[in-house]
Amino acid sequence: MALNTFNTLREFSTKQGAAKFYSIPALTEAGFENTHRLPISIRIVLESVLRNVDGKRITEDHVKALANWQANQSRTEEIPFVVARVVLQDFTGVPLLADLAAMRNVAVNQGKNPKAIEPLVPVNLVVDHSVQVDFYNTPTSLQDNMELEFERNSERYKFMKWGMQAFDTFQVVPPGIGIVHQVNLEYLARGVLQKDHIYYPDTLVGTDSHTTMINGIGVVGWGVGGIEAEAGMLGQPVYFLTPDVVGVNLTDQLKEGVTATDLVLTITEMLRQAKVVGKFVEFFGPGTASLALPDRATIANMAPEYGATMGFFPVDEETVTYFRNTGRTDEEIDAFVSYWKAQNMFGIPQKGECDYSQLLELDLSTIEPSVAGPKRPQDRILLNNLKTKVNQLLTTPVKDGGYGKSTDSTQKVFHTVAKHVPLKDAEVLIAAITSCTNTSNPGVLLAAGILAKKAVALGLTVNPWVKTSLAPGSRVVTEYLKNAQLQDALDQLGFKLVGYGCTTCIGNAGPLDQDLEDTIVKNDLVGCAVLSGNRNFEARIHPNIKANFLMSPPLVVAFAIAGRVNIDMSTEPLGKDHNGQSVFLRDIWPTQQEVAEVMGFATDAQTYRKLYADFTKDNPLWNNIPSSTGLIYQWENSTYIAEPPFFKDFSMMPGVIQPIKGARALGIFGDSITTDHISPAGSIKPSSPAGKYLQEQGVVVKDFNSYGSRRGNHEVMMRGTFANVRIKNLMVPGSEGGVTLYQPSGEQMAIYDAAMAYQSKHIPTMIFAGEEYGTGSSRDWAAKGTQLLGVKAVIARSFERIHRSNLVGMGVLPCQFIGETTHQSLNLVGNETFDIVGIDDDLKPQQKITLVIHRASGQSEEVPLLLRIDTPIEVDYYKNGGILPYVLRELLD
Q1: Stated pTM of the model
Q2: Do domains 244-313+348-367 and 370-603 have the same CATH topology?
Q3: Other CB atoms within 10 A of residue 197 CB
Q4: CA atoms of 206 and 93, how far apart (whole Å)
């Protein structure tokens, strides 16, 4: 029975008749006079709080607090946000499903009904992270890659099929359909939902950082770790501190020759500098209204790169057009428009209409062609400055972020042994049109096709040793590229279809030619990747490719033709035409008019309806995967799926919070340690602890697959924690890879081996780090692995939002240095022991606690820390040993 809180349950009209909704404007009558000035994103969250008042988890006080949101005030109130649905991708979705299956085991062991563990909201898992680019530039690359994907992942897919029949609200979009965010945008999102005759906004959380892409169509949602997503699925609100909202006023329009990718790289750089981490960002103004919806979605997608919780775009006529073009029904669209108009939230606000915590301005006409790299997405480089920047990076010392080459060595040409391929620094070895950011945007994909068509007509080619690939975000892309007669030209340049999924951007670039790899490694060459992705962290794209540059799809094609990144495309030709004449980028760059002329092929509603109607049709590989049945999963001996250990010795009574005594440092790290550094997604080295374990289990190296694909097995994942080949533990100066010094002997060993040795002696461990610890993907295994290694606390200068909450969710203390204190200023070397005091059962959010350092010399020092358990509910999670035991105790009580 719906509660009529503050008399806000009202009616609005649709063509289907009268419909009910919780009216935000009606709150004005209840005395909340400024709701019409709240940012649109805050109003949507407010609607969820209002609709879900139950007097227990969500009260009228929560409504009052959010309805009285002020642009600038201290943020101490937490919001219990009940989402309408949850979206998963397979790398994060499989361990989540394993946790649910393990919870059912616990329920049975406790004498309870296993159906007590059941998602209470719709859950969609999209299998998009498992396809690798093993085959490329052949007519059968797509089929060959898919067959290998199914061969590698059949155990995981069988497990997913079990989940589909075991849980009522759990559905799987099988491999070969598309990338989760594009599938979400084109198909899963309905804009407005309806239950028990009450309409409400589509809201969600997803287990992938780039869930924010959905903000482009006015849907409030963001990425969380699988740990939080599980709690949300099982009836827990998603709790978060009342946010600041940064308003970005976009004015004017993009000029000729500038792409949405150039815009998003500029916004990423700008918002990183504005320090929007953990804040909502809301776009408004005339420039926002001028953007095509895929361009908005591209900007929203990159919210994790600029650090925001969301990059939100309100609903307007452009949103409606997109819904119509992508095959939503007339009834859905009518309800959608009627609902938002009834809420007085239809249309892009103009300057002065909403209150924001901070106001930023960006004139779209000032955007210039750009790329970002070589290691971070916020490091934007103007296209015309790229050659100078690359040459500078090559000779900059490694300690200053460069590659430490001599000027002479950068000019040297090396030849591979077998194929006699000439290689030198800064050459393009991977060119990939990939990732959700840009392959969901018809404007830049059609532009890539037009550029390719012009290049082929002039006789330009790509060096055969460049690994070229096209991995669209959905099958719709293939349809419109073919119908626009652009795919043939892409094929001729090597950009043949390799799969529908997150390939190169997630680390699934696949192997390079062994001859090439050997030459790169032997001569320490700085090989380059150019990709239309959103992430370019060290060793993510390929372990032996040192420089990775993000750029628009047409630029990916252009750089593949040029064959190197140290080129000034404004003055240097890409190559020669049939007649030996120089061809410059300007000669083949598509105009806005040329793109507009073929855009109609990407807006055919029938194509979308046809391709999303049936996922089993023409999908024999998926249909042939066997499925087990029953409410309880029968755990098998598998190196992919294993019963997680998080509920071992589970009891209905939580433990007692105690100080941490006598801890050792497991690792001391610098700034910008990403979740890729902490828990790699890519290839598994045979010599690593995970590689050795797999070989002990009888798995041959060619069948290792990736860390991401093995996230359903904790034995692999804990061995992979801190095992990235590029992570630098400052305890071992000059080292790379997951090594540490075991104390007190000072013996160098793998972090995993040291962690196990400490655990065998009941010695707790800690991690120390600098700024932005845990940036990157919403990778719950970065927190799960940390916990399983026995780490009790992570002490850093600052944390990325999702990883901080994931650490709390796994019962690991995130602590922050105060003021100017750093592990460098404290001269920590790793042979100290540590205590954390001031923590007990009376723990308070963000309280001050004390780190006691016991140095090898016998001296001691006390250092104040800020406890980054931020909210009261997080205190409860920590008291329970993490979010999963907390939720399980609630469900079984």
Answers
A1: 0.89
A2: no
A3: 10
A4: 10
Peptide bond into 377 cis (omega under 30): no
Mean pLDDT over 574-578 rounds to 97
Structure tokens at 155: 């155990």
Q: Is the pLDDT of residue 2 over 70?
A: no
CATH architecture of 370-603: 2-Layer Sandwich (3.30)
Residue that is written with structure tokens 């790899």 in the block: 517
Summarised one tens digit per residue, pLDDT across range 664-690 is 999 999 999 999 899 988 789 999 999
Neighbours of 64 (CB within 10 A): 16
Q: How do the domains of the chain map onto residue ranges?
A: 5-81, 244-313+348-367, 370-603, 658-676+728-892, 680-720
Task: Provide DSSP, 246-315.
Answer: EEEEEES-PPTT--HHHHHHHHHHHHHHTT-TTSEEEEESHHHHHS-HHHHHHHHHTHHHHT-SEEE--B
pLDDT for 185-240, tens place per residue?
999 999 999 998 899 999 999 999 899 999 999 999 999 888 889 888 988 899 88
Cβ neighbours of residue 523 closer than 8 Å, sequence gap 6 or more:
414, 423
CATH assignment of 658-676+728-892, given 3.50.50.60, 2.60.120.260, 3.40.309.10, 3.20.19.10? 3.20.19.10
Q: How far is CA 462 from CA 434, 455, 485, 604, 703, in A?
A: 18, 10, 20, 32, 31
Whole-number Å distance between alpha carbons of 383 and 258: 11
For residue 421, count other CB atoms closer than 10 A to its CB. 18
Cα–Cα distances (Å) from 554 to 382, 441, 453, 495, in that order, read: 16, 12, 11, 11
CATH number for 244-313+348-367: choose from 3.40.50.300, 1.20.120.140, 3.40.1060.10, 1.10.3720.10: 3.40.1060.10
Task: From 262, 140, 441, select the one nearest 449 (Cα to Cα).
Answer: 441
**Identity of residue 498:** V
Distance CA 322, CA 315 (A): 11
Say if CB 120 and CB 234 are below 8 A apart.
yes
Q: Which of 870, 865, 831 is nearest to 851 (CA)?
A: 865
At residue 160, what is the residue type? M
* Structure token pair of residue 20: 């009910």
How many angstroms separate the CA atoms of 356 and 358, rounded?
A: 5
Distances (CA, A) of 797 to 772, 777, 814: 7, 19, 10
Q: Give all strands (DSSP E) within 603-676, no chain letters.
A: 660-668
Structure tokens at 574: 């890409």
In angstroms, rounded to a whole number, what is the distance separating the alpha carbons of residues 507 and 494? Answer: 20
* Closest residue by Cα to residue 202 from 100, 287, 328: 328
What's the confidence (pLDDT) of residue 109? Answer: 93
Residue type, 397: P
Buried b (16+ CB within 10 A) or exposed e, 732-747: beeeebbbbbbbeeee
